[in-house]
């Protein structure tokens, strides 16, 4: 795993190995493989990128043109995008199966084959690519390789290009604070607290603006649990700032701008954004909530990235942006970016969701791809986080948890109470999380907050996902064993999950039995919880088991998301929409009066006194 001595490659052209090296001794330089990368620079091969300066009007994303020529072209040739421009093209030995090709010591941000939309590249040796870059705190270079991604040979390196201000504050994401009238604004920049003071300038739309200070977080390579996050996938995360905008007036529109005050007195500003403050808990007004899991990210320019398997991600994102005026809050219940240890991808993800997350609260949950790593306290000892072991999710996004390491929290939104569970930590009786779940469910005031929603990443309820079918559990083993009593006792209306990349809805169910037939309209007293899998946010779809259960009512093998609409305290609508067209494919309503919630259901009430 450590030094293999020989350094085969000495890249000229102002390249310096391992520019992203940290200070803790785990340097990519110490892992150079001997055989693979060879230098194949030829004088006639060229690659150029333009324009040289991006974001001159303050844009945080821009399209660039990369032109290249190669005297000895092949269909295997590819172009890698590197940032910082100063990178290492040496090959680093694979440490575990969570590292993927190309196995370069500096992972490219993304890459594309030279013949992509250049049909005669292998004859003419000439091509050009249109690539979309986002501002991510450093400059860029583009490199032409031959030998495919398995055996990369560096052919030519481009000029360097850069955003006008690479450190600019970018990608704001809103989240509900710990109290209903507080909005957290989190963003990323290249400004440490030694260089500038971060703050948010904000106020009612059209009214006077005030400034609120922001806190700053970052982390080092030493915080990563393993490779690739700790080695080839590491990239400087910059600084993550959070400011809490307090004492908001329900439903009013606010504007805000991210700012940094440099110590010489100059200011750096972001563009200006708008959001609507959240409703007061119990407030009877139209409230619309979008919920999905497992969305991930993808490149609009068609480029390949590490962990490039979320083909539905852009459709979901575009569909939500299209309907944003009719959405009040979003829950992304785990498997957020699928960076899986290639840290640059968190910038790509926050850039992709920016139009949504800067406008409505973007509440996240933790999934296996955020948290799991062997020997790090995750309930599941797999390697799905690529060595991130939760640090990225816990820092890049704010959630109103007591301790963001333990990614469970409650949040109130008007007539809704949401209890968000962390399936990557134990939830069974006797655990800290079980106490939280019972507390969250039991403290909802159902007169004012009639709609009680349980959210989790892995399926703790019911799913006909193929792998759960093979296990014969139709859930995570031990998932609902003890939770079903809580759902029943506290009359949870709907439980939603991700993890299984499809859509499925059950009948109102308790102890694996339909308490009533599934339908499109439910009225009258609560009988049992409806379970919904909504893991089709974007990641490659998951098959259903061919086994048919009595409780599975609607199944869809496609990308989509759920929208809950609370019209008032007596009518709730759930709609399942496909990401491809935004149309409704499944729905149901719950209509009831307050006395219906007070009424007893199976196992939901203690006995009333017999004395008179
Ligand atoms: C590459 O980047 C590192 C770290 O910023 C710097 O120390 C080094 O001088 C750079 N090398 C070149 C050739 O620019
Ligand atoms: C060039 O690419 C085309 C399309 O992929 C392929 O059919 C053809 O065989 C290639 N020619 C050479 C010389 O590789
Ligand atoms: C303050 O520093 C920044 C960055 O170094 C510079 O662009 C700006 O012109 C300086 N402003 C003043 C007033 O000196
Ligand atoms: C609640 O909203 C539904 C749907 O808009 C409507 O039909 C119903 O009359 C409303 N109920 C009350 C009590 O306002
Ligand atoms: C995305 O939406 C378009 C337009 O509806 C559709 O043609 C395409 O198949 C969708 N992509 C995926 C991966 O579902
Ligand atoms: Fe998952």
As residue ranges, the low-confidence spans are 1-36
Strand content: 25-35%
CATH C-level name of the largest domain: Alpha Beta
Query: Helicity range of the residues?
Result: 10-25%
Task: Give the name of the CATH superfamily of the largest domain.
Answer: Metallo-dependent phosphatases
Mind telling me which CATH architecture of the largest domain this is?
4-Layer Sandwich
How many DSSP-defined strands?
33
User: Can you tell me the overall shape?
Assistant: globular
Major sheet description: 8 strands, mixed
Distance between the termini: 78 Å
Look at the structure and give the mean pLDDT.
93
Total number of helices: 9
Total count of domains: 3
- Supply Rg: 25 Å
CATH names the topology of the largest domain as: Purple Acid Phosphatase, chain A, domain 2
Bound molecules: 2-acetamido-2-deoxy-beta-D-glucopyranose, fe (ii) ion
Provide the structure class. mainly beta
EC number: 3.1.3.2
Family: Belongs to the metallophosphoesterase superfamily. Purple acid phosphatase family.
Catalytic activity: a phosphate monoester + H2O = an alcohol + phosphate
GO cellular component, one term: extracellular region
């Amino acid at each position: 795993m450590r030094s293999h001595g020989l350094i085969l490659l000495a890249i000229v052209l102002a390249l310096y190995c391992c520019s992203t090296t940290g200070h803790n001794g785990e340097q990519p330089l110490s892992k150079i493989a001997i055989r693979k990368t060879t230098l194949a620079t030829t004088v006639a091969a060229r690659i150029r990128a333009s324009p040289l300066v991006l974001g001159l009007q303050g844009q945080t994303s821009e399209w660039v043109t990369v032109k290249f020529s190669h005297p000895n072209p092949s269909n295997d040739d590819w172009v890698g995008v590197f940032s910082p421009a100063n990178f290492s093209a040496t090959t680093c030995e694979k440490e575990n199966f969570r590292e993927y090709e190309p196995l370069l010591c500096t992972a490219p941000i993304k890459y594309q084959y030279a013949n992509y939309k250049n049909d005669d590249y292998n004859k003419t040796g000439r091509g050009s690519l249109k690539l979309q870059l986002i501002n991510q705190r450093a400059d860029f270079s583009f490199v032409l390789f031959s030998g495919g991604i398995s055996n990369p040979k560096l052919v030519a390196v481009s000029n360097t290009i850069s955003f006008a201000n690479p450190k600019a504050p970018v990608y704001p994401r809103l989240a509900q604070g710990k109290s209903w009238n507080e909005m957290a604004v989190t963003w990323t920049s290249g400004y440490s607290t030694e260089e500038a003071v971060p703050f948010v300038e904000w106020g009612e739309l059209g009214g006077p603006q005030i400034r609120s200070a922001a806190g700053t977080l970052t982390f080092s390579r030493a915080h990563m649990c393993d490779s690739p996050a700790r080695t080839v996938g590491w990239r400087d995360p910059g600084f993550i700032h959070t400011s809490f905008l307090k004492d908001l007036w329900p439903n009013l529109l606010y504007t805000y701008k991210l700012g940094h005050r440099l110590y010489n007195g100059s200011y750096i500003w972001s563009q200006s954004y708008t959001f609507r403050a959240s409703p007061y808990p119990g407030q009877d007004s139209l409230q619309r909530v979008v919920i999905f899991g497992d969305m991930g990210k993808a490149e609009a320019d068609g480029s390949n990235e590490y962990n490039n398997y979320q083909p539905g991600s852009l459709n979901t994102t575009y569909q939500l942006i299209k309907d944003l005026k009719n959405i009040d809050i979003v829950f992304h219940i785990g498997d957020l970016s699928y960076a899986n240890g290639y840290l640059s991808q968190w910038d790509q993800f926050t850039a992709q969701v920016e139009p949504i997350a800067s406008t409505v609260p973007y509440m996240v949950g933790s999934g296996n791809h955020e948290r799991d790593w062997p020997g790090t306290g995750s309930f599941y000892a797999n390697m799905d986080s690529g060595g991130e072991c939760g640090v990225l999710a816990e820092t890049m996004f704010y959630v109103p948890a007591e301790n963001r390491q333990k990614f469970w929290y409650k949040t109130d939104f008007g007539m809704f109470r949401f209890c968000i569970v962390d399936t990557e930590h134990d939830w069974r009786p006797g655990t800290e999380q079980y106490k939280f779940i019972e507390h969250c469910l039991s403290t909802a005031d159902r007169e004012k907050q009639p709609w009680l929603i349980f959210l989790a990443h892995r399926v703790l309820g019911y799913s006909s996902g193929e792998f759960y079918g093979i296990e014969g559990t139709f859930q995570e083993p031990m998932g609902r064993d003890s939770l079903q009593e809580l759902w029943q006792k506290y009359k949870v209306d709907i439980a939603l999950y991700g993890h299984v990349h499809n859509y499925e809805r059950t009948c109102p169910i308790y102890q694996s039995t339909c308490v009533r037939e599934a339908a499109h309209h439910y009225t009258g007293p609560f009988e049992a919880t409806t379970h919904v899998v909504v893991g089709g946010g974007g990641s490659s779809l998951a098959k259903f088991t061919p086994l048919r259960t009595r409780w599975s009512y609607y199944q869809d093998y496609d990308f989509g998301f759920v929208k809950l609409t609370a019209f008032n305290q007596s009518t709730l609508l759930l709609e399942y929409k496909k990401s491809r067209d935004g149309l409704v494919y499944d729905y149901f309503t719950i209509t009831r009066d307050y006395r219906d919630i007070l009424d007893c259901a199976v196992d939901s009430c203690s006995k009333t006194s017999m004395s008179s």
